[in-house]
């Protein structure tokens, strides 16, 4: 700012105060209060003041001077130069500030700088299988698998003993008669909102959810449509499950069989849990079956309640494997043991899924004269999954133990050609797998995609044999072994599943001696015949000519199975098989026309039994290690029967006719490679 008295006071871009006298000498006062005589005048000053015009547009300061805009600091050698240019040489300490000609204003060109934003790609998460079941984080307590004992279940009331609290287990099945001593669920003796079913977890448990079903019965329809949940640590003081400030009411079932899962609003830690029905089917009464989800918490003050289940020493892949994961596991085993394993397919399911078989032998792919052929088949019913997982674990076990030099496994692999079919009904398994272990129910996935029960889909050779025996045509006019398949069964319009045709072709190509068909839902071993001779009877003892051999085979498996041999186990549903050593003639249990066991025996002379592995058809993944321990010895011991010197002679000879002898069909002696 210039004053008319001839004195000019201004502030330069560096914060220094300039006093310009009439003699045009510049005196500069720096920020430290020192006065400097400066003659470094530059173009663009006003009335002799070394202040650029651009700085005069700033608002005045407190002393009336012009307040400059903030500028970057310059080195001392460039002070007095608005553009920071270094003078060409030394300057005198004092000189005259001559007025400079006005410089035209430069056009300011604004350049927009665009910074390119570089997006870093995040690593892709591994793709999740869309068919994978959404398993709850906490496993079931074990009402269905019988890990929860009858003494841990109580109820406010019940109609009768057969409908007591001990029957309120998920997927439990009732007897065939109304009022059976062992019925299909818990039913309250009164119809009011004060009824409850109580489960004692025996230790502090982090409860997370409840699964319910209605009553299993062919005579009545009963289920609970809504219920509340309560918790306690002493059975005297009960706290309701709340959803915020209100007591939570959970939706129940809409039919007797479909399981309904309700997760708690937030996990609750307690020892006891009660299910308190609020409403029920209007034409029925209060009846339900249940399973509870919860994670047990260790109690350092009481080791009695610590888990006592045996911990497997075998490091195997204990989890449920869908179709893709099953293929990966079989390939991994084949890569680990290429000299003793071979993976091949015997056909495809209706939806095109291949039916893979793992062969384990010292010379895979070759039939050796005198070496018996053995097979295990699992997954005939898609929702009975334990056999599938056991065979996958058996593949891993045989491979690893052979590499370690286990003499028992080496002898078994060297002397026997083993074939393992883990999934005979892959379409049905995928259906059950999508729902998960607790929500697939009792029958979802049992049948093929076409709705065919494979255990009733094989050719009925029993009726033809028995008719020929009644007419004295056996054995001169009608054979009693290697019975041919009826012509009607081979027609294109015959109701035969592609899975069944693939297995029949497999049986005809390989001279199997011994076999077992792995199922689930009970704890028992059955043997042929599976079909009653009196066609109108549902149960009838129908033995074969080799009944002693079959009883031996069934006993070998049942007595070496830890779950079946346990004296403390309770009934799975309503049949007491412990009285007969956990074995039974199939037809004497319930008739099964067209079973694979009967067909295998009559058409190929292969001895085959059915093993019901567990009360729970689809056990939770957390239960698979214990199930492997229950069945490992049984699986190995049963295979060894083809070479056991104490086995019945008929079995060691390969059945009623030695499969590798001259009476075997010629195509079986040299089966083509799949």
UniProtKB/TrEMBL annotation:
Species this chain originates from: Anser cygnoides (Swan goose)
Residue ranges constituting the F5/8 type C domain according to the UniProt record: 136-295
Region of interest (Disordered), residue spans: 67-93, 120-141, 648-674
InterPro entries: CARBOXYPEPT_ZN_1 (IPR057246), CARBOXYPEPT_ZN_2 (IPR057247), FA58C (IPR000421), Galactose-bd-like_sf (IPR008979), Peptidase_M14 (IPR000834), Peptidase_M14_domain (IPR050753)
Keyword Protease appears in the UniProt entry: yes
Stated name of the protein: Carboxypeptidase X, M14 family member 1
A GO CC annotation given for this chain: extracellular space
Known cofactor(s): Zn(2+)
Source organism, top-level taxon: Eukaryota
Signal peptide (from-to): 1-22
């Amino acid at each position: 700012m210039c004053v008319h008295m001839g004195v000019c006071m201004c502030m330069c871009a560096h914060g220094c105060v300039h006093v310009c006298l009439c003699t045009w000498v510049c005196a500069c006062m720096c920020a430290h209060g020192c006065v400097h005589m400066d003659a470094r005048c530059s173009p663009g000053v006003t009335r002799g003041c070394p202040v650029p015009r651009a700085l005069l547009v700033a608002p005045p300061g407190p002393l009336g001077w012009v307040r400059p805009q903030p500028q970057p600091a310059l080195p001392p050698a460039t002070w007095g130069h608005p553009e920071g240019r270094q003078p060409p040489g030394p300057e005198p300490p004092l000189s005259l500030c001559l007025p400079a000609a006005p410089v035209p204003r430069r056009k300011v060109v604004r350049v927009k700088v665009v910074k390119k934003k570089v997006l870093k790609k995040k690593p892709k998460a591994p793709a999740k299988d869309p068919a994978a079941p959404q398993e709850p984080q906490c496993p079931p307590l074990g009402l269905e698998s019988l890990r929860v004992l009858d003494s841990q279940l109580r109820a406010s009331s019940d109609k009768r003993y057969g409908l007591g609290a001990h029957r309120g287990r998920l997927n439990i099945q009732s007897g065939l008669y109304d009022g059976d001593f062992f019925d299909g669920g818990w039913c309250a003796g009164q119809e009011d909102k004060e009824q409850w079913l109580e489960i004692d977890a025996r230790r502090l448990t982090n409860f997370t959810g409840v699964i319910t079903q209605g009553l299993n019965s062919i005579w009545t329809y009963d289920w609970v449509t809504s219920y509340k949940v309560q918790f306690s640590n002493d059975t005297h003081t009960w706290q309701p499950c709340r959803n915020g400030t209100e007591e939570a009411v959970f939706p129940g079932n809409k039919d007797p069989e479909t399981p309904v899962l309700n997760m708690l609003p937030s996990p609750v830690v307690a020892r006891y849990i009660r299910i308190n029905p609020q409403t029920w089917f209007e034409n029925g009464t209060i009846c339900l079956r249940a399973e509870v989800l919860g994670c047990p918490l260790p109690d350092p003050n009481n080791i009695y309640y610590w888990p006592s289940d045996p911990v497997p020493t075998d490091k195997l892949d204990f989890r449920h494997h869908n179709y893709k994961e099953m293929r990966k596991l079989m390939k991994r085993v084949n890569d680990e043991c290429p000299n003793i394993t071979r993976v091949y397919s015997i056909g495809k399911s209706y939806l095109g899924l291949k039916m893979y078989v793992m062969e384990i032998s010292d010379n895979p792919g070759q039939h050796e004269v005198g070496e018996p052929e053995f097979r295990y088949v699992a997954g005939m019913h898609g929702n009975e999954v334990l056999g599938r997982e056991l065979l996958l674990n058996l593949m891993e076990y045989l491979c690893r133990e052979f590499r370690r030099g286990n003499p028992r496994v080496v002898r078994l692999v060297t002397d026997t050609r083993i074939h393992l079919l883990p999934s005979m009904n892959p379409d049905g398994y995928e259906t059950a797998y999508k729902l998960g272990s607790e929500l697939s129910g009792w029958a979802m996935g049992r049948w093929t995609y076409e709705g065919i029960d494979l255990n009733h889909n094989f050719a009925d050779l029993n009726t033809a044999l028995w008719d020929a025996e009644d007419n004295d045509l056996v054995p001169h006019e009608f054979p009693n072994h290697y019975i041919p398949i009826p012509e009607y069964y081979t027609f294109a319009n015959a109701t035969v599943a592609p899975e069944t045709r693939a297995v029949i072709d497999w049986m005809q190509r390989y001279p199997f001696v011994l076999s077992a068909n792995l199922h689930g839902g009970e704890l028992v071993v059955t043997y042929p015949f599976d079909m009653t001779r009196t066609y109108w009877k549902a149960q009838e003892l129908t033995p074969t000519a080799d009944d002693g051999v079959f009883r031996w085979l069934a006993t070998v498996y049942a007595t070496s199975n830890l779950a079946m041999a346990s004296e403390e186990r309770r009934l799975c549903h309503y049949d007491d098989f412990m009285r007969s050593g956990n074995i039974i003639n199939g037809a004497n249990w319930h008739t099964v026309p067209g079973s694979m066991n009967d067909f295998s025996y009559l058409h190929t002379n292969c001895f085959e039994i059915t093993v019901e592995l567990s009360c729970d058809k689809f056990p939770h993944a957390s239960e698979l290690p214990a199930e492997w321990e229950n069945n490992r010895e049984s699986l190995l011991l049963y295979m060894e029967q083809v070479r056991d010197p104490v086995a019945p002679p008929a079995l060691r000879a390969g059945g009623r006719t030695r499969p590798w002898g001259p009476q075997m069909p010629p195509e079986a002696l040299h089966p083509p490679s799949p």
